[in-house]
Design a protein that fits this description.
Blueprint: H1 2-25, H2 30-57, H3 61-83, H4 93-115, H5 120-141, H6 155-176
Helix pairs in contact: 1-2, 1-5, 2-3, 2-4, 2-5, 3-6
């Protein structure tokens, strides 16, 4: 399921990127580009919400808490991606709220759906969807963390990975106590 969800998100992202390029080539305004980005992020956030809700449904409170913290941190950069095309002509508060809802509400909807997963098989399916969303983000970020020599797994990246795993372990210990 993880692979299917990742492939679905990659296909949607490819389509949205092509539309964004066509729109930019046709002189579309920043508001249109921001809307396309918000829609793409909203689809991605649906998978995140499914993972969070499913984690709580199966009783994995430490996992759910870790997912919320991790998604909250990286969603800040998603918000910046949405508003960047609007820099030339700042929009009103209403448009910003609408773009935020388009990008963020699917996470809430996904969490509600995921939390309703009382069947272990359904929870595993929804966690797989969330893992697919995470895999898609990793695929997008990997090129930007390469060092000067083109290595992805350089000491700083590996140190961050180990620190993240240690943080998950400690969080799991604290929640289970």
């Amino acid at each position: 399921m993880t692979r299917l969800f990742w492939l679905g998100l990659a296909a949607i992202e490819s389509h949205m990127t092509a539309r964004r390029r066509r729109a930019a080539g046709a002189g579309a305004g920043g508001a249109y580009l921001a809307l396309l980005i918000a829609i793409g992020i909203g689809l991605h956030n649906l998978g995140e919400g499914l993972a969070i809700g499913s984690a709580y449904a199966v009783g994995a409170l430490a996992l759910g808490t870790f997912l919320i913290a991790g998604f909250a941190v990286h969603n800040t950069t998603e918000g910046l991606a949405i508003v960047a095309p609007l820099a030339e002509r700042p929009p009103g508060v209403g448009r910003l709220v609408l773009l935020g809802l388009i990008a963020g509400a699917p996470a809430v909807i996904g969490a509600v759906i995921g939390a309703a997963a009382f069947d272990a098989s359904l929870a595993a399916l929804l966690l797989g969807a969330g893992a697919g969303a995470i895999a898609q983000v990793i695929q997008q970020i990997l090129p930007s963390i390469r060092d000067e020599e083109g290595r992805t797994l350089h000491p700083v990246a590996v140190g961050g990975l180990i620190a993240g795993i240690a943080l998950m372990y400690v969080t799991g210990l604290m929640v289970s106590v």
